[in-house]
Amino acid sequence: MRVREILAVKGKVLYTIAPDMKLPVAVAAMSERDVGSLACFERGRMVGMLTFREIVGALHAKGAAWGSVTVAEVMVRNPLVGRPEMEVDELRRLMVEQHMRYLPIMDGQTLMGVISFHDVARAVLEEQGFENRMLKAYINDSPQEEVRT
Questions:
Q1: CB 105 within 8 A of CB 83
Q2: Which of 66, 78, 81, 134 could form a disulfide with 106 if both were Cys (CB 3.0 to 4.6 A apart)?
């Protein structure tokens, strides 16, 4: 299975934010949309990623003053990215090794989507379920040997 297949199932909705926005705006957007990350765009180009991990870090570092912090101050600049043609196992390995819960998928300079570790887990489960059903169907349809008594 390739990353492009996960994106096809997930859909093409992208949630973005400008780096000059304040963190409370980002938190509200993430909460309203029930997402854990936002791609940060400036002048039509992705310049970073913001996840709840960076927001929690800002809360810890700034305390009560976190509301004045901009996205640009805490976002991950130039994040690692995946490619649509990657195998899911390669993507999963990258996410685990880099401790990433969200990975932007780029095709050249175009953001194709953001895949979460949850998306990967769901895709793997669905693929395993499909393979399991196919194996069971194969076993049930196989010719049976005649038992001699």
A1: yes
A2: 81
- Tell me if 47 sits within 8 A of 77, measured CB to CB: yes
Task: Give me the residue label for tokens 């300079």.
Answer: 109
Query: What is the spatial distance between Cα 127 and Cα 114, in angstroms, rounded to a whole number?
Result: 20
Beta strand pairing call for 37-42 and 16-17: parallel
Q: Smallest Cα–Cα separation from 118: which of 107, 103, 130, 128?
A: 103
Determine contact, residues 11/41, Cβ cutoff 8 Å: no
- Evaluate whether 114 touches 104 at the Cβ level (below 8 Å): yes
The percentage of the chain sitting over the pLDDT mark of 90, rounded to a whole number, equals 70
Task: Pick one of 3.40.470.10, 3.10.580.10, 3.20.20.140, 3.20.20.70 as the CATH number of 3-141.
Answer: 3.10.580.10
